[in-house]
Amino acid sequence: MLNFAVLVAIAGIVACKGSGSSSTPADSAASDTAAIKTADTTTKEIKPKGAAPAWAPNMKPEMQAVIEKLESYGDKPIPKLTAQEARKNHTPTDAVMDLMKDNNIPKPVFKVDTAGKEIPVAGGSIHARVYTPKSGKSVYPVIVYYHGGGFVIANLDVYDASANVLAEKTDAIVVSVAYRLAPEHKFPTAHDDAFAAYKWVLANAASIHGDAKKVAVAGESAGGNLAINTAIKARDTKIALPTAIIAVYPVAGSDMNTKSYTKNAAAKPLDKPMMMWFVKNYLNSMAEGKDTRINLVAANLKGLPPTTIITDEIDPLQSEGMMLADKLKAAGVKVDSKNWDGVTHEFFGMGALVPQAKEAETYAVDQLKKAFGM
């Protein structure tokens, strides 16, 4: 049973503040949660209050400060909660917001407009938030973005910062997809929703001022898994491939005995008990851990578009992310990958406080611009 837990340890390993349902509020005014998670510059040095934890003695100070703030809320551990309860826990985004307030760091103002869209899927519809740069172009490239949260928790607000950064810095429209969550919607619902959203964007790009010939997919953790799976299904169903894939610490394997999993078994915000909890909530059975939609390192990866893999050191998923990059290269895919030391799962999008996060965000933006020919 443990062997397949890692697979769903997806992104957002901390519970989402508020509902994790597929509908999210305030699309016409990007939430404060998101805007605060990243900024162009850090205006004040952020220092942790205590010593580095035993499980990460070389953690960067800004990253440690975020983890300390997250743990200070005293939330009950996610594995002891129901999914509905876990979605009300504090998130890393909350920790970043509060640290910025504590240190009088102003919120960035993104030059991006947002609007909501409903996308039809099998059995109903899902919500998406469309981020459009205010640069005044008549047509933009499009990035279909999938948030993290283990297919169980988190929502568009929790990952609003990433979407804002990608939209503004790449000068591209971002369609952030609120795929349906488990356990209300078990595997493979999230994967099916992700692909349905991609097809919707291809068919409706003009209606949102997007260029249907320049559509990339991107995601963090669970979302990174969904981005790659969407490209695989596009290949297999012979529809237009994404222009590029950006996968940030993606869920890519089902082996809990990798080097990074052993090293980071007690890491925060992602640890082994939480992975087990995600597995229990998302999969219908442990046998599904062998499905190549989960165990991507065993999937047929030939013919995929240029792919960028971002990994981090203090993360059980580091090894499988690196392995996926190697497997993609072996399959003939053009791959670019980078790892950031001293930071944890969920660091991407924390550019307001964590220098390594800002570097990773800039790297992702540069890769997208290159793919779009910008």
Automatic annotation (TrEMBL):
The UniProt keyword set, sorted, is: Hydrolase
Q: Record's InterPro entries? A: AB_hydrolase_3, AB_hydrolase_fold, GDXG_lipolytic_enzyme
Entry-linked SUPFAM superfamilies: alpha/beta-Hydrolases
Residue intervals of the Alpha/beta hydrolase fold-3 domain: 143-348
Entry's transmembrane regions: none
Organism source for this protein?
Mucilaginibacter terrenus
- Protein known as: Alpha/beta hydrolase
Give one GO term, molecular function aspect.
Answer: hydrolase activity
Q: Does the keyword Hydrolase apply?
A: yes
